[in-house]
Amino acid sequence: MEIRKLNSLRALAALIVFFTHFSDITNWLGGMLGGGSGAYGVMLFFLLSGFLMSYLYIEKGFNKDNIVRYFSARFARVIPLYLVVVLASYLLSNNGSSVLYKIPDTETLIAHLLFIYGESVLWSIPPEIHFYFIFTLFWAMSKNRTGYIYLSILAVMLLLFFTNYPRIYGDINGVPYNLFSVLRTLPFFFVGVMLGMNYRSLTIPYYLRKHWFVLTLGFIPLLYPAFSPINSADKVRMWLSYEVLLVMSSVFFCVVFLVPDNNILLANRFGDFIGKISYSLYLLHMPIIAKVNQLDVSTELKLLLSLLLSVIAATISYQFFEKPVANLIRRKVSNRPNSATRPA
Q1: pLDDT by residue (tens digit) across 93-147?
Q2: Of the N and C termini of the chain, which has fewer Cβ atoms inside 10 Å?
Q3: Residue 270 in 3-state DSSP?
Q4: Based on the number of CB atoms within 10 Å of its own CB, is 180 exposed (0-12), middle (13-18) or buried (19 or more)?
Q5: How big, in percent rounded to 5, are the helix, strand and coil portions of the chain?
Q6: Distances, alpha carbon 99 to alpha carbons 94, 109, 112, in Å
Q7: C-alpha distance from residue 60 to each of 63, 71, 193, 331 (Å)
Q8: Residues sharing a CB contact under 8 Å with residue 59, sequence separation 6 or more, in sequence order
Q9: What is the C-alpha separation between 42 and 248, in angstroms, rounded?
């Protein structure tokens, strides 16, 4: 069963990242939408990722055939476009071009291909891949040991807290913490997993399912440093703040569980469209903004051009590369004989 609202949440996440980067690069509105606030869009992506993995797979049998389908679907969704962007960035960087992302040497290329860390927006792909493997551990526990999933999440969260995570600065034997972005993103993935596990079984009283809960999305801009009513340094902590985790998780819960499925602000064709192209939009918008910013035109026109060109590029990428390649991979896997029909 498709949860249509999630398309619009995915679209919102991509647009938050887009407007943040545009604000940072062009100083639009004095940079009020920037300052690293795109992190809140990425947090939504990670909440969605954990939720969907759990919602789609946790009740399926943990067997070889389902595991193959799971990894092939995840691979088809993320890896092909990522590899094209990484390899193109490496080739262009070595030819003196900065059209895409800076991957100037073989060591950096290998780090991207092994999902150790990523340049610019590519940083978020390695933890996403790590999540795929972490989820299989939860999935293995789901049939008879579901309680161990919650216990494992609690144990890891306590360990992160008492070892002073999440944090960015510092090192482990000389290796900087910020290379291990999975450590600061795990809590959002965990929350998504737990909510996905309970989406079907949790009964929400009818009197709580109200359209006005969509207004909770307004708490996200209140987390932005420029708009936050919080006066302490906590307002710029973002990934380093468990309070931010609480707010983002609460907003996600309200939208997914309390807003009716037919809410016009979340269930509409625009949200469906941007949601579908959101991954391509996320990976491709930065170079486009940088190029448009070189034009001698007003900032408002730069905004319109950047958004239009980013959407066009993302649509072309989705229609003619991302979607066909994903469908090809899925067909290859679906045509593979499963263990029940394969001759002994």
Answers
A1: 999 888 899 999 999 999 999 998 888 999 999 999 999 999 999 999 988 888 9
A2: C
A3: helix
A4: middle
A5: 70, 0, 30
A6: 11, 16, 18
A7: 9, 14, 15, 20
A8: 142, 200
A9: 11
